[in-house]
Write a structure and sequence with these properties.
13 strands, about 350 residues, alpha+beta, Integrase catalytic domain-containing protein, Chromo_domain, Nucleotidyltransferase, domain 5, 9 helices, nucleic acid binding
C-alpha cells in the first residue's frame, strides 16, 4: 500500500520527474527521491488502473500478423470497398468500387457502385460470382455494407462462410490488390489525360490477371487444378512449422482496444478506447489472437492481436465521466438522470441517482 501511495503521488504531481511517464521512468524517479525499491510488476499494476496512462499508452501500428494460409483456389475470397467519390463526376456518378480477390490464385474481380447500401453491394458481389465460381469462405471488414440482411441472405444462398477481421489491416491481400489496381488506373489517367476509369476497368483487370505475380510465380489466370501443388509451394514453401508463443492475456481479463488511427493522427492524443472489453476466447495462432466481448457481454466481431489490446485494472471506487445529461425523472421521491457516458457507445446510456453524481470541477 505504501508503494501505491508513493507511485500515485509521483505520477500525478506535474512537477515530479516521474509524472505521467511509463513504468521505468516512474520507478526510477520514486527510487531516486525516496530510496524505496519498487519492482516493475508493482508499477505496471498501478499504471494499469490509471486512465491517464491506459488511455494514452503508445499503441504499436506495425507488428507481425497471422499469415493467411489457403490450400487451393476458391477456398477463400477477400472483398473490400474502395472509395472513388473524388472521381465520380468523371465516371457517371459511380462512387465506389467493389474489389474481390481469390487469396490463393490472386485472381481479382471488380464492380462499380453508385452507393454502398447493402442491396447494391449484394448485387455487385452476385455479379462477381457469375464470373468466378462459389468460394468456400469470404473475408471482409465488419462494415454494414457487408453485414446486412441482403448480403447475408446471398451468403446463405450459396453456402459461403462469411467472416470479418477486427484488425486495422482487415483484408490485407485484397487491399494490396487495390493499390496495384489504382496504380495502373492513375498511370492510365496520366497517359490519356483523363479521370474516367469505368470504360477500361475490365481491361485493367484483364491486364492484372494475365501478368506475372511474384508470390505465385505465374499469372493468376495460369493457376489451374493441375498446378495447385506448385502454386502452394511457391506461396508457402515446404515449412509448415508454427512457433508456439505464450498467451499474453487469459479469459476474463479486462482490456482496452487500440483505436484505429490514420497516418497523421497525433500520437499523444487518446490511443486506446475508454470503453472496456473482456477477453472471451484465446486462440493460439502464430501470433496469438483474441475474441472479446463488450461490457454487456455482446461479442465484438473479428479477432484481435495482443498489440491491439491493453490489460487494465478497474478500481472499485473508479469514477466514470459523464458527457451529458439527456433527461431526468422522479421515481418514489428519488431524482434520476439519464446520462451519456464520455467516450462510451450510446447503448450504455443509463439512469443513475442524482445522489451518485459528483462534481469534479
Amino acid at each position: 500500500m505504501a508503494e501505491q501511495i508513493l507511485l500515485k503521488r509521483a505520477y500525478y504531481d506535474p512537477s515530479h520527474p516521474g509524472s505521467f511517464c511509463g513504468v521505468q521512468k516512474l520507478i526510477k524517479s520514486v527510487q531516486d527521491e525516496t530510496g524505496t525499491k519498487i519492482n516493475a510488476q508493482t508499477a505496471q499494476n498501478f499504471l494499469a488502473g490509471q486512465d491517464a496512462y491506459t488511455l494514452h499508452r503508445a499503441a504499436r501500428l506495425r507488428f507481425p500478423r497471422n499469415r493467411v494460409f489457403v490450400p487451393r483456389p476458391l477456398y477463400q475470397f477477400q472483398a473490400d470497398l474502395c472509395d472513388m467519390k473524388s472521381l465520380s463526376e468523371h465516371n457517371d456518378g459511380y462512387q465506389y468500387l467493389l474489389t474481390v480477390i481469390d487469396v490463393f490464385s490472386k485472381k481479382a474481380y471488380a464492380r462499380v457502385l453508385k452507393n454502398k447500401t447493402g442491396v447494391q453491394v449484394t448485387k455487385a458481389f452476385e455479379a462477381v460470382l457469375k464470373d468466378s465460381q462459389i468460394p468456400q469462405k469470404l473475408q471482409t471488414d465488419s462494415g454494414k455494407e457487408f453485414f446486412n440482411s441482403s448480403f447475408q441472405s446471398l451468403m446463405k444462398k450459396h453456402g459461403i462462410n462469411h467472416f470479418a477481421t477486427g484488425s486495422d489491416l482487415k483484408a490485407s491481400v485484397c487491399e494490396r490488390f487495390n493499390r496495384t489496381l489504382k496504380s495502373k488506373m492513375y498511370r492510365y489517367f496520366t497517359a490519356q489525360n483523363t479521370r474516367r476509369y469505368i470504360d477500361v476497368l475490365q481491361d485493367l483487370l484483364q491486364s492484372y490477371n494475365t501478368s506475372y505475380h511474384r508470390s505465385i510465380k505465374m499469372a493468376p489466370n495460369q493457376v489451374k487444378s493441375d498446378n495447385v501443388a506448385l502454386v502452394f509451394q511457391n506461396l508457402y514453401g515446404t515449412s509448415s512449422r508454427c512457433r508456439k508463443k505464450p498467451m499474453k492475456f487469459k479469459k476474463g481479463d479486462l482490456v482496452r482496444l487500440s483505436k484505429v488511427r490514420g497516418v497523421f493522427d497525433k500520437r499523444y492524443e487518446q490511443t486506446f478506447t475508454s470503453e472496456v472489453f473482456t477477453i472471451d476466447q484465446c486462440i493460439p495462432r502464430d501470433p496469438p489472437v483474441y475474441k472479446i466481448k463488450d461490457y454487456d457481454g455482446e461479442e465484438i466481431i473479428g479477432s484481435f492481436y495482443e498489440h491491439e489490446l491493453q490489460k487494465i485494472a478497474l478500481c472499485k471506487d473508479k469514477l466514470y465521466h459523464i458527457d451529458k445529461i439527456l433527461s431526468k425523472r422522479k421515481q418514489r421521491g428519488q431524482l434520476y438522470f439519464l446520462v451519456k457516458w464520455r467516450n462510451w457507445p450510446e447503448k450504455f446510456n443509463s439512469w443513475i441517482k442524482a445522489s451518485e453524481l459528483k462534481n469534479l470541477t
